[in-house]
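Hi R.,

As promised on Friday, here is the backbone we talked about, encoded as structure tokens. Could you run it through your design pipeline when you get a chance and send me back a sequence?
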């Protein structure tokens, strides 16, 4: 497909999606390395992409189920038959006014995919609660200071000054998830004299690198931060100048009153961290020239919004927003919309959310962060889900309560028909989920497809655009799932799909930046409008209606979440005398955050077997 040599692209072995270069020799990918233009490194997952590319189990043709769901019996069919079948199922649901009974299970990455354009045109789809996901933390920063709707953006470790504090709360930067650049930034900051503090129930690889490891009860992070906020305010260790100039009038006073009884002693009883350590950490942060806080696993136990809100308040009152070493707030560089598009958002709140609690009408736009997580299995049982589309995901293996998921997709009604009418799966090889699918389509790897990554956080902290490009031919008849949705869109909603392929779609979006896919290729696969810069709020204010930081959320008063709550996940809120031990899971780097193909990758299996 391309001449021999090294080519820039973007890895897709996990959600970090690092900048890499792939070596092409004789039409094959033979080696992967970090892209030196981004100070790039590559982990074992990235290197295992070569093994994945040439796995003997790659799918090459569409498959149709010929047995019962779960039996894994398939027959090869043509693409024409596969697309006709998928279109008929989607039309049937749409024509009877039940478009909201479709949901899409996927491995999240770019917000620019044609899949979203199709789902918007389709007019509604089920979503479920996400209080355990970093989506709620992202919402917290949007509400507090107008942060960008991007995936996780880490602190500006690269600019952390001497005596600054890097606080990792369940982040596992060295052992699990982060872009390969981040651990190096942390170590270089330590070399400059910054301190690394790790808050984690587990003595993780991060803790092994830390100057101070603080064990904590799982889900106790919000209580820890509220205790620190109390101590900072009570001891005048907060940034008075920033609070006076940049926090919305009246908000700080509400926080001050709210945390008055959330003393280090009181919060110690909740989170398990000794009060003297809460005080010591608060003083360390209050006196430091800069503080960066990164928490990911700290939000995975159902209190994501509470932790995100407490974290945002802490960052604001210590003056660590958009400063060197603190929390970056990158500009949201606008891309061109793909027009024409459906007028207004689809009626998600009324029809497309599976109602799991009383808060739906109270906080309509972001209601998914308030509700408990109901999984697809329950939606199927409740007849709320009729079509499930799974791309680059494996819920039959990874869904919490996966056995219930497997039972639910096989449930039948009184007439002997499946309650879930249709399950479409696109993948590069058969997975546990594929065994339950009605149609399985052969997908393409990250070495075989086009994609635009809008504001990837590894590049200039989200301040730009990156390109994933096809470098080798896909096997057999494999097609990228984006092209599947474009064809479905052209069949069902031609008024919104005037482009022919993914490159044309991306070119429309890039036009507003003065770019195109071809131009991005010429530029080495990346573009940025310039350096990210710091303290931009001094010129433009923050991205909130008042242009100030909002610490108090009036729109959540009715549901009792206008300020963060210090509560534990129920399974960890037990008497320590009766339950002195805590069980919590931990995943190592070779499988953490990966796509659905990790369990079938020989190189990653070798990593597991070599450690036992």
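Update: got your reply. Pasting your designed sequence below so it's all in one thread:
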């Amino acid at each position: 497909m391309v001449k021999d040599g090294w080519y820039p692209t973007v890895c897709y072995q996990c959600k970090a999606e690092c900048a890499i270069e792939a070596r092409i020799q004789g039409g094959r990918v033979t080696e992967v390395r970090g892209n030196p233009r981004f100070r790039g490194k590559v982990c074992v997952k990235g290197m295992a992409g070569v093994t994945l590319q040439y796995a003997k189990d790659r799918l090459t043709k569409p498959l149709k189920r010929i047995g019962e769901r779960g039996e894994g019996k398939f027959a090869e069919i043509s693409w024409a038959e596969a697309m006709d079948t998928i279109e008929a199922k989607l039309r049937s649901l749409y024509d009877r006014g039940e478009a909201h009974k479709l949901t899409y299970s996927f491995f999240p990455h770019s917000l620019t995919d044609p899949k979203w354009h199709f789902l918007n045109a389709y007019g509604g789809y089920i979503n479920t609660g996400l209080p355990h996901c970093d989506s709620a933390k992202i919402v917290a920063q949007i509400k507090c200071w107008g942060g960008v709707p991007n995936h996780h953006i880490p602190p500006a470790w690269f600019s952390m000054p001497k005596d600054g504090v890097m606080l990792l709360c369940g982040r596992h930067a060295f052992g699990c998830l982060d872009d390969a650049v981040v651990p190096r930034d942390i170590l270089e900051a330590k070399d400059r004299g910054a301190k690394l503090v790790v808050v984690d129930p587990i003595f993780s690889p991060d803790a092994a690198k830390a100057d101070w490891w603080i064990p904590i009860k799982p889900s106790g992070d919000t209580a820890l931060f509220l205790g620190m906020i109390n101590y900072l305010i009570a001891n005048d260790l907060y940034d008075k100048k920033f609070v006076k100039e940049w926090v919305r009038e009246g908000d700080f006073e509400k926080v001050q009153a709210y945390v008055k009884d959330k003393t280090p002693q009181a919060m110690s009883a909740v989170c398990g961290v000794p009060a003297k350590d809460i005080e010591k950490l608060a003083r360390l942060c209050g006196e430091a020239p800069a503080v960066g806080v990164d928490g990911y696993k700290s939000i995975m136990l159902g209190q994501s919004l509470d932790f995100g809100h407490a974290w945002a308040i802490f960052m604001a009152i210590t003056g660590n927003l958009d400063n060197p070493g603190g929390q970056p707030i990158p500009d949201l560089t606008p891309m061109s919309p793909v027009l024409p598009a459906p007028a207004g958002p689809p009626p998600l709140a009324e029809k497309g959310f599976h109602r799991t609690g009383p808060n739906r009408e109270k906080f309509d736009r972001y209601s998914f962060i308030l509700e408990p997580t109901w999984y697809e299995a329950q939606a199927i049982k409740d007849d709320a889900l009729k079509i499930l589309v799974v791309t680059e995901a494996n819920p039959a293996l990874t869904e919490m309560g996966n056995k219930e998921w497997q039972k639910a997709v096989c449930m039948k009604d009184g007439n002997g028909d499946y309650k879930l009418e249709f399950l479409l799966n696109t993948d590069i090889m058969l997975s546990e989920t594929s065994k339950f699918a009605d149609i399985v389509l052969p997908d393409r790897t990250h070495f075989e497809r086009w994609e635009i990554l809008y504001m990837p956080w590894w590049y200039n902290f989200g301040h730009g655009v990156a390109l994933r490009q096809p470098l080798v031919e896909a096997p057999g008849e494999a097609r990228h799932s984006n092209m599947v949705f474009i064809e479905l869109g052209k069949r069902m909603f031609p008024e919104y799909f005037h482009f022919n392929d993914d490159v044309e779609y991306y070119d429309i979006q890039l036009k507003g930046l003065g770019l195109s896919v071809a131009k991005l290729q010429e530029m080495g696969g990346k573009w940025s409008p310039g350096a990210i810069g710091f303290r931009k709020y001094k010129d433009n204010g923050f991205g909130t209606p008042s242009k100030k930081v909002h610490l108090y959320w009036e729109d959540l008063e009715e549901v009792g979440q206008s300020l963060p709550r210090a509560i534990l996940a129920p399974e960890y809120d037990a008497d320590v005398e009766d339950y002195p031990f805590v069980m919590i899971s931990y995943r190592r780097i070779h499988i953490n955050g990966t796509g659905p193909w990790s369990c079938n990758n020989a190189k990653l299996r070798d990593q597991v077997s070599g450690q036992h």
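One thing I noticed while checking it: The longest helix spans residues 79-95.

Thanks again,
M.
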